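Hello,

Our lab assistant flagged a job as stuck in the queue for most of the afternoon. It eventually completed. Since we weren't sure the result was trustworthy after the delay, we are filing this so someone can double-check. Below is the sequence as submitted and the structure that was eventually returned. Let us know if re-running is recommended.
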Amino acid sequence: MRIDLVTLFPAIFDGYLTQSLLDKAIERQLVSIHRHDLRDWVAEVPHRKVDDRPFGGGPGMLIQVEPTVRCIRDVDQLADPARKILLTPQGQRLDQRMAENLATSERLMLLCGRYEGFDQRVLDIVQPEEISVGDFVLNGGEVAAMIIIDAVVRLLPGVLGDENSSLDDSFSRGNRLLEFPQYTRPRSFEGHDVPDVLLSGDHAAIAAWRSDMSRKRTLERRRDLIDDNENN
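-- returned structure --
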């Protein structure tokens, strides 16, 4: 997969792209991530100004349509056409099903807004998919882009050590409910013991216990997931 990031602050990604599984996935060429500074497409090179006041008044500044559309078109030509994603609190909320769908794409272009967002004509001309990572407002789309990258890249073949390790994660395709509790050594700590069934070696009993605990936890914390799962 190729991921292109259109951003005013490419340096925000410096540390993020060199850590943990993502760094290994890049090193193994399972994913390539390319940053594009939107200011490089500004016609007035000495000032590199990309924002301006909104028509009609109001607080804040808007990212201008001309450099943004020019940037998107130029970046799109660097490889096969990209699936364009605009990070915005007004978009469809990201969930695991959406992440699984995005992971089937060969190329994503993530558009990271700032200030009061993009001139509406960017959306009208480019017609990107609009995705929100939650009902809250961030300073910019870069952190939201990192969330999408994290959610998507771990689903690519070869990124995780075990291909099946993501199947039982909360919300995932092998288990649309919340994940069951898990334990490791020591067997006992401050009066809290590992459930006996997990030490039994009875794989059928362990699977049944995990399924039961997953459903119980979901009923306690996210009953809506039970309803959604039964309706689907």
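-- support follow-up --
The delay was a queue issue, not a problem with the job. The result is valid. The chain has seven helices and nine strands. Strands lie at 2-7, 32-37, 51-52, 62-63, 83-93, 107-112, 129-132, 188-189, 192-193.
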